[in-house]
Amino acid sequence: MLQHDVIIIGGGLAGCRAALEIKRLTPNVDVAVIAKTHPIRSHSVAAQGGIAATLQNVDPEDSWEAHAFDTVKGSDYLADQDAVEYLTKEAPEVIIDLEHMGVLFSRLEDGRIAQRAFGGHSHKRTCYAADKTGHAMLHELVNNLRHNGVHIYDEWYVMDLILEAGEAKGIVMYHILDGQLEIIRAKVVMFGTGGYGRVFNTTSNDYASTGDGLAMSALAGVPLEDMEFVQFHPTGLYPVGVLISEAVRGEGAYLRNVDGERFMERYAPKQMELAPRDITSRAISLEIRAGRGIHPDGSAGGPFVHLDLRHMGKDKIMSRVPFCWEEAHRLVGVDAVNEPMPVRPTVHYCMGGIPVNTDGQVRRSADSLVEGFFAAGECACVSVHGANRLGSNSLLECVVYGRRTGRSISQYVQKRQFPEFDPQLYLNKAQERIQKLLAQKGTIRIAKLRQKFQDCMSEHCGVFRTEEIMREGLAKLQDLKQQYSQIYLDDKDNCWNTELIEAMELQSIMVVGELILTSALNRQESRGAHSREDYPSRDDSNFLQHTLAYYSPAGIDINYMPVVITMFEPKERKY
């Protein structure tokens, strides 16, 4: 059995920022980061558009209060306002801190950090590094980890969270390289495992975003919060689903239907293309549904709309959003300088996740905590995003709450002893799971079952939802879950067995998918990204509260938890 004082699962921005903060404050604490890819291949590296902060470099009228209001309004009033206040107050300081670490932000002519417009924000406050902001940030953080002596286990897949008697004690992990199993015990376990886009069939997320941390937490008895709120990014490149950053619209691109009309005037006349993502995604879906979408041959009734950059000019496109131009050119052969890009909504981000307090400690219920267990970033739900996240607030959450969680852990770990448990029990369980998968003589390929599950989620829990459609989806999911025992693996090796990893990831996908769909079915209202055609209005009297969904093989139990309202009373959301 291995041991470290603190183990952080996930090598993205939240995990790296927490690790760095722990080492800065308590250099003697032994910190390890465990990632199933190399840390600089974590999905944070793909974040394009920017990170919001009220630096006032472009807009001197901006303030943290305005940022907080935009965030709460964007969340459809489901965000916890104490968490939002901390997020927005800390934002300028974390940007300066990142710059001092070496992050190369884009600049204004006078040398100050540049800021651009972003959807749902009332001021130009999004700092950026062209359209590769996550890349610029993550590389510097990973470099700083090595400099500060953080132990990195890269390409280890974490199979199980060891949680006994309300206390996190360690993890079970599998070395993808050679099949070695290890138990690590720790005084503190932190999850920074990211999102679950691969639960759906079209997503901007990478192939590793399979919701493993969420599934492990749920299987260990931890509830998941607000899982019904799945963000569809309006501009996924058709047909591949990869992201065309909101930065493109922030720099002035137009959305057009088959008639060449800037249709956002019908849905958000003030904000137009820079309306919040849930509103813009619904607008595109409605245009397509009404027959004003576009076919590849340019005719009406097709599955996408156009994102038009041509009026921006080549110089601006190549200096401000070069990566987006490159993606469209490489993946679908579109030169955005001369022709519009085909786009449609794609699954992008999870507003929900592992429930945590503002110190990053995981909740066991609305009023109790799990000892020794912390989480931050996209896998966590401190609820700064509520029912809908504003663009450029996700990188901000990762660094603000990654740092705050690191600070909390650095104090908390001083009072902790190494926990006691029987490692052999967990080792045997992991070996049995692997052997069972390798020995299974089924008839179904993993990819085929995964595709059916992803198609079911996209069809039955998409941009628009109804009770009938979701109930059908849940019935299908139960049938697909039964088929898991019929998958078979061709690869029986210990060495680099990616098929075995895919089999375990599929189990995570199935757990998370069922939690999303059940939470969505139980929320009988429309709020933010959760849009129900059978309940088209927001219902504050019954549903101004957070969902807590508890998983068990027998079924999912739903409880609710109050929203923290300290500054802004809920009112109708108009843009």
TrEMBL record:
Residues 450-575 form the Fumarate reductase/succinate dehydrogenase flavoprotein-like C-terminal domain. Its EC number is 1.3.5.1. It catalyses: a quinone + succinate = fumarate + a quinol. InterPro entries: FAD-dep_OxRdtase_2_FAD-bd, FAD/NAD-bd_sf, FRD_SDH_FAD_BS, Fum_R/Succ_DH_flav-like_C_sf, Fum_Rdtase/Succ_DH_flav-like_C, SdhA/FrdA/AprA, Succ_DH/fumarate_Rdtase_cat_sf, Succ_Dhase_FrdA_Gneg. One of its GO terms (molecular function) is flavin adenine dinucleotide binding. Its main location: membrane. Pathway: Carbohydrate metabolism; tricarboxylic acid cycle; fumarate from succinate (bacterial route): step 1/1. It holds the Pfam family FAD_binding_2. Gene3D superfamilies: FAD/NAD(P)-binding domain (3.50.50.60), Fumarate reductase/succinate dehydrogenase flavoprotein-like, C-terminal domain (1.20.58.100), succinate dehydrogenase protein domain (4.10.80.40), Succinate dehydrogenase/fumarate reductase flavoprotein, catalytic domain (3.90.700.10). One of its GO terms (cellular component) is plasma membrane. It is found in: Membrane. Its cofactor is FAD. The active site is at residue 277. Keywords: Electron transport, FAD, Flavoprotein, Membrane, Oxidoreductase, Transport. SUPFAM superfamilies: FAD/NAD(P)-binding domain, Succinate dehydrogenase/fumarate reductase flavoprotein C-terminal domain, Succinate dehydrogenase/fumarate reductase flavoprotein, catalytic domain. Residues 5-395 form the FAD-dependent oxidoreductase 2 FAD-binding domain. It is a peripheral membrane protein. GO terms for biological process: anaerobic respiration; electron transport chain. Belongs to the FAD-dependent oxidoreductase 2 family. FRD/SDH subfamily. NCBIfam families: PRK05945.1 (NF004613), sdhA_frdA_Gneg (TIGR01812). This is Succinate dehydrogenase flavoprotein subunit. It comes from Gloeothece citriformis (strain PCC 7424).
